[in-house]
Design a protein that fits this description.
mainly alpha, 72% helix, 2 domains
């Protein structure tokens, strides 16, 4: 009979899907130096890696900055709760992001760790790849202002509606709530709290770099 403590045991490395995917890719890359059939895989793998490396690194950097500098109270206050505007904030933030779908995942993970509701994270993820500001400029250049506006508005509307649906499901208890979310007092003010933190802040460059890297 299994022990009651077994459920608290963390899965090992061998049960990690990402580990096996990386292991398989490594094996194929090694084989490509000896078997010509796998050379195409190696070329495609490193070509794709070069494409996503920059945006992914930027996403990790922004995620580290969020983890180090943004208090959980701020994210919980702005991107959690039952207010409809929380989804609007998530979509607007996604619109301002300048990284691709790979880098945006790192940012979304940090937002969730900081207390963002699942509904806000979903809305953020939907808005970022299709409705971000750089893509808006590209769409205007390719299709003209009218068609670009239609595409972007459709993406934003989809993100908003999906976020609100998830928010309703959260309220009804049909979706698990984020355990990282803090209960923020009703009279809490991000601006007031930020001013207090800024007044007490003292720069320590080494500590800042370590904090961002750790995040």
């Amino acid at each position: 009979m299994a022990s009651c403590c077994d459920k608290d045991k963390k899965p090992g490395l061998l049960s990690n899907t990402l580990f096996w995917a990386a292991f398989a890719a490594g094996i194929l890359i090694v084989l490509s130096f000896f078997i010509p059939f796998f050379e195409a895989f190696r070329g495609s793998f490193f070509g794709y890696a070069r494409i996503v490396a920059g945006p992914l690194a930027l996403g990790l950097l922004i995620g580290g900055i969020i983890d180090h500098y943004v208090p959980r109270e701020y994210v919980s206050f702005v991107l959690a709760g039952r207010r409809k505007r929380n989804i609007v904030y998530a979509v607007l933030w996604g619109f301002l992001m300048t990284v691709c779908s790979h880098g945006i995942l790192a940012i979304a993970v940090q937002l969730y760790r900081k207390g963002a509701a699942p509904s806000s994270v979903v809305a953020f993820l939907l808005a970022s790849p299709w409705a971000n500001f750089p893509l808006t400029l590209m769409l205007i250049g390719f299709f003209g202002p009218a068609k670009a506006a239609l595409i972007i508005l459709s993406a934003i509307l989809t993100a908003l509606l999906t976020g609100w649906i998830f928010q309703i499901l959260e309220t009804k208890g049909l979706i698990e709530k984020n355990p990282n979310t803090l209960d923020v007092a009703g009279g809490f003010s991000v601006l007031t709290d930020f001013r207090k933190r800024l007044a007490a802040y003292r720069l320590d460059l080494a500590a800042e770099v370590r904090g961002i890297a750790k995040g």
